[in-house]
Fold these 3 entries.
Entry 1:
Amino acid sequence: MAEAPLMERLDFYAAMVRSKIFTRSALAVAFFLLYRHFNGDSGRCDPSIAALAHETGLTMRSVKSAIDELRESDWWRVSREGAKALGGRTNAYAPLFEVGKRASPLSRESGEAQRHKVVKRASPGTSKEPVKRLARSISSSTRVSRNGSENGQFEAFWRAYPPRGLHANPKAPAWKKFVAAIRSGADPADIIRAAGAYGAAIRATGTDPRFVAQAVTWLNQERWTDQHQEPLEPPWPVAGMI
């Protein structure tokens, strides 16, 4: 399952949240599978259970239960075809994107019409707030001219990037990294859009602000390209999950 870009994975995750059929533990595991471990080019996603427990802050037993929940749902395919590890192979995880699109269809129209369109309620009893937050974040993050100044583009990025609360997030080094990136050929709109998507995912999982990457770190690691598979930061426990 190759070429699954970040936005398709976030759309899928938002549909999972809207479905209200998954426990918070299953949603936590799904988030890290989609955002931290899924390779958008190859479709490979095979972290160990220990790695998922370390990142989510869940116990190994809770992670296994969450994986069973994903396996038994119609949304994921889980098989023992992952990477070789001590004691055997890890699981291989494959999100079934078509299920998410049918359950909560997000418009795939081109251009600005797609970015500003909010998903309609799928059923009278389904909350649309998580998807609305995601749509608002993506919409606001793209309101910057490609011909605008570097300062203006950076300020749009800074507004889109998730806050770290009372924890350090130095702005000046982030500005230097942002400017260096766009002068090296990176599209500022792509960076801003990815920052907004990152913020939407952080809010959807209720991640503690101290585990949000500093903006300078996120830029230095070129996280907008979303090509890494291995965790690049300290563990990411998800607040309130058991």
Entry 2:
Amino acid sequence: MTEAIRQDYEVSSEGAVRHWSVTNARMEDATPTASLPAAMLSILPGTQLCGTLLVVMATQSIVDFTCSMVYNHEVINTLTYNGGVANTWGAINEGDPIYYDRSATMPAGVNLSTSPADQAAGANALFGYAVLATPTDVYPKGGITTSTHDVAVMQRGAGA
């Protein structure tokens, strides 16, 4: 059998890029901001589809859900909550999981943390993993007190 590339099929050496239009009302943050992390609402906490907002319009946004795409995001080093308040913090290391944190106590413009659970003990969705932004990037970032850091995050996206 002869192999052939169909006319309606496109091949990329970087894998499938998944830029998708989503309804703002179906996102965790119904008033999204371009370049910030995004998570879709889900019937089961912790299973939200996550990506990075590219374009924000009145009722819809374009989100990059591409698996393994790397974006710089602000990440707070919260590890756990107790009684609805951030309780412990730790250094962010290369390879650490980064979560879309649904807690209402998150600083403005910050949606990602190192905590697998939110302030109400609900599961946070895995957003991706901390990676090197450049060969000169340095880990660990932060320590045992609360701090927010610019972290290169390889997003889990769709298809992971």
Entry 3:
Amino acid sequence: MTIGATVIGTGLNAEGSYIEKAINYLKEFTELPLYSPKDLVDAMQNTDCYTELSSALKICMINMSKISNDLRLMASGPRAGLNEINLSPCQRGSSLIPGKVNPVMPELINQVAFQVMGNDQTISLASEAGQFELNVMGPVITFNLLQSLKIINGALESFNDLCLKKISANRVRMKEYVESNVGIVSAIIPYIGYEKAAKLAKKAVESGENVRELCLKHTTFTKEELDIIFNEYEMTTIGIAGLDKIEKKDIEK
């Protein structure tokens, strides 16, 4: 924000060197690359630069909160949840259930995100409340913006050290999910066509067998070919796994 006592940004009532000296002092004191706005009158009237920063912080934390929600679901279990990943325990767990690991770091990110969203709303209202050549709502804008920056910085540092760096994957469980998922039948559509793949999917649902087993029984795919087609990494990247390596097949042996 502009420095006061210069009549709505005109510089009136201050020496010509005042702005330069003030900026140099603040740069030295804060060790930040500060500079004077090109249009001081606009800087007094409008606080859009602060709403822009606050909005960027809000969007960042919305995304972080969504990521945290995903991690909480992926770590749910181990019996009745997904149990795809392990989150490192940061405390003794539930006061009611011994051994339970609560996802406290993702929950921290959720709560910080909510606070930052609320701060952004306050900053937006304060910025809009300016009248004519002056916006007197600077204190509440500054308070909320500094709070958002402070809590984001602390939360992300803790989240990185106590959660992200310590996540491990339950590879056996995730492999079971992939192999038992009827949806992977889509990977063989380019080789046998949609209708034949749909028949295999229906058999998988009715019999409880997985798609790979049914392919070995009812198609001429070899085990090696199926290893290429149903490769977990290849199925989650752009393109069709091994499409140029495997000939099209008939559904029946």
